[in-house]
Amino acid sequence: MIDTHCHLDFQEFDQDRDAVLQRCADNGVNRIVVPAVSAACFKRTINTCIRYPSLELALGLHPIFIEQRQPQHLVELDQLITQYSPIAVGEIGLDFFENRLIRENLKEKQIAFFAKQIIIAKQHDLPLIIHNRKAHDECLQLLAAQPLRGGIIHAFNGSVQQAQKYIALGFVLGFGGMLTFDRSRKLRRLAEQIPLHAIVLETDAPDMTVSQHQGQRNSPEYLHYVQQVLADIKGCSLETIAETTSATAKRVLRL
Questions:
Q1: What is residue 242's predicted lDDT score, i.e. its pLDDT?
Q2: pLDDT tens digits, one per residue of 64-98
Q3: Out of 102-106, 110-114, 136-140, which region has the weakest mean confidence (pLDDT)?
Q4: CB 145 within 8 A of CB 106
Q5: Host H or E run for residue 211
Q6: Residue 128: which of 113, 136, 118, 137 has the closest Cα?
Q7: Where in the chain are the domains?
Q8: pTM (two decimals)
Q9: CB 65 within 8 A of CB 39
Q10: Cis peptide bond upstream of 206, omega within 30
Q11: Which CATH entry fits the domain spanning 2-253: 3.30.70.1020, 3.90.1150.10, 3.90.180.10, 3.20.20.140?
């Protein structure tokens, strides 16, 4: 299986990263996409991915740190993409969920930085890994204006109609640990209604852990819990989930 979204470069894994990757292999996770979130951490993300062959690098500027963003960060991003050839531009996007991110001019700044990173991705012919909370309509509008290679909508939690629009634009939808909670009825209905070929698996570790490890650090080794729930929802085998979601990830990310 492929974990299409995991921050294995974060310091939460500094003490046992090698052991985590061994347990991933034992649990059938043999490829992990590691998206950057901040210019301050680009080198850390790059070096982690260089060290471990099973990791795939993505580079981008996460909207949650929008207060820190400066124009030179976009220049640095463009240069590092040329130098290190990541598989995607990410984690980028829009976050209109937290009040602090939409106060004053931060909403407009988010949109501006997202739009500029879309252009960078287009120039490098790369797919996107998109973070989106409470901003699907704005996101879709920006993506429709720039024909792209598509990509992944990370931790998708929009409507079926929005899912269909993303799919039409060449994007697939990431489902992770939240799917394992019984209370996630809306999310499970979404997973049921969206075609399996438009779904990829992810953990977002160390965040958004599975129900089986609630209150603990999330880890890519737990991807099989998401696999099991999706198999139950779709009424198919674990092998079908692994094969189909991995094939979709390989297609969209050109692995």
A1: 98
A2: 999 999 999 999 999 999 999 999 999 999 999 98
A3: 102-106
A4: no
A5: none
A6: 118
A7: 2-253
A8: 0.97
A9: no
A10: yes
A11: 3.20.20.140
